[in-house]
Each structure stands twice: as C-alpha cells, then as structure tokens.
Amino acid sequence: MDHFLPTATTSDEKERDAKCAILPVGSFEQHGEYLPLITDTVIATVVSRELAGAYPLLQLPPVTVSCSHEHSAWRGTVSISSNTLQAIVDDIYRSITASGLTSLVVVNCHGGNYSLANVVQEGNAHRKKMALFPTGTDWAEARQSAGLATSNHEDMHAGELETSILLHAHPELVRDGYQAADWAADDRRHLLTTGMGEYTHNGVIGRPSLASAEKGKAVLSSLVDRFGSVLEILQG
Description:
The chain has 236 residues and is of the alpha/beta class.
C-alpha cells in the first residue's frame, strides 16, 4: 500500500542507520479543476519515497503548506510566509543533526518556494550539510529522459509533468478534464507582481493533455538516478 506519510518505526530507522534525511516540501494550492490542492505535497512525498527506496535515507513527513502567494486568487489556496518556511527547515535541520544525522536534503516540489534556495546556500556557507533537490536542471533532464514534449518554462503548473506523476503514482487523485485543459502563457515577466491570475483563467499553465502514467514513472526513475551525485557530495 502507498502511504503519504512514512510508516517506519524507530527500530526500522535504527537498523537503517541513515546519515541523511529527506524533507518533502509541497504546498496547498490550486492545480486546475482536475488535480487536488495537495498535488505538490503528493509529488514531493512520492519523489521522497522513491529516493528512500533506493538510498539509505530517513524519510521525513512533508511540509504541506508553503509559499503559494501567486495562487491566492483561487479559493482553497493557503500560504505561509517565506520566513516561516525558512524557520521550519532550519529547525528540522537542527533536530535531525542533534539526533546523529549529518545532512538534510530538501525535496521541494513547489516552484514558488524561492527562499529554499537561499536556506540551502546560506546553510552550506555556515558549514551545514544541505541540498535542494530536484533542481531545475534535474527536472529538465528528467523530462528529456522520460520523453516529455514540454519544457520546465512552458509546462509550469498542473501540466504534462505533474499530471503524469499523479497518473502513475496516485491515479485516483486525477479527475477527468485534464485532457482539455491546456493553457499557454510563455511570457510571464510580471508574475511576481500580478500573480498567476493575470496569465491563466483555469489555473493551468502547461499541457496536461500530453500526460501519461508511463511518462510519470519514467520521470521518477530519472530523478532517482540523478540523486546519487547529491548524496555523494553530502557524504564526501
């Protein structure tokens, strides 16, 4: 059975003896009319679960609400401040290292969490061992490896990538309608000022009509392969 939350016991973790923890960070925001508000959280959890199945990692429960201010025009979206998100990650890092682990990977699956890059960058400058995964390059390479037709930029939200991952991992969460919900908005230069409401009427920017479970499975496989270099650097 697939679980959104890790179910390991303390005995399981003692036997695993992981030195690195992974923290899934999602969001609670609109994803069109066919994907749930928890989409980013589900994807972050699925990615983390795949990584924990392939590498010795302590899988933490997800952060379920983050910085989704650009989606505030849609009912149901909830956000916290970037300061709060940073504090959560900092506190978790202090906690896991106090219990004997040596590093933390933030598995961020919401593009609006810009501040997480600063958290990781500043943390490493102060001798913490932290990483952010997947990066934009990781996503782009995974798209190419899986045969997706769209790029990170054009398929920004609730599109081919996210719909494919859910069709593979949790198809019960995908409602009908994604086949006719494509929306293009490649020029989004004022997004931080206006929010997404100025660029899409249905909450979608991308091509969900191209999604498939096979693509979602291939994307996850590619991400697992690419994670090895992250762990190697943290444990070096």
